[in-house]
Specification:
This protein is α+β, with helices and mostly antiparallel strands. The protein has 3 helices and 6 strands.
Length: 131
């Protein structure tokens, strides 16, 4: 009885670990809301800083369900501190972003935790050349 219980526990632990790694691979460069939610919950995905140069081309806009103001979602290739590129989706609420500005995004996988506009001088030169 105890042996059967231990086998189940070990099986669940192995399933959890395999699922966490599998989901991490699945969500990489996947800009859906499901991918962002999975990454928020996945303990193997660590927060990181990404940089992007804004554009005037947003992927889509939609009205807020309560206030009816327009929100603008952008899907762009972003760069982390190591120069690795990844496609991310981020949203500007109430107005489109000014083109050719630089954003610093705090992410957890595909989930954008926050973003802020930064000056070009605040971005490392190695990353700036990739944007």
């Amino acid at each position: 009885m105890v042996k059967k219980f231990l086998k189940r526990i070990v099986g669940f632990v192995i399933l959890f670990i395999v699922s966490a790694f599998g989901f991490r691979l699945y969500t990489y460069n996947n800009t859906t809301q499901a991918a962002a939610l999975i990454d928020q919950l996945n303990p193997l995905v660590q927060p990181e800083i990404m940089y992007v140069k804004t554009t005037d081309k947003y992927a889509y806009k939609y009205p807020d369900s309560v206030s009816k103001i327009e929100n603008f979602t952008y899907i762009q290739t972003c760069v982390n501190k190591d120069g690795q590129k990844r496609e991310l989706a981020y949203t500007s609420f109430g107005r489109p972003l000014t083109p050719k500005k630089f954003l610093k995004l705090t992410t957890k996988g595909q989930s954008i935790q926050s973003w802020e506009e930064v000056d070009e001088k605040e971005i490392p030169k190695t990353i700036l050349s990739l944007l």
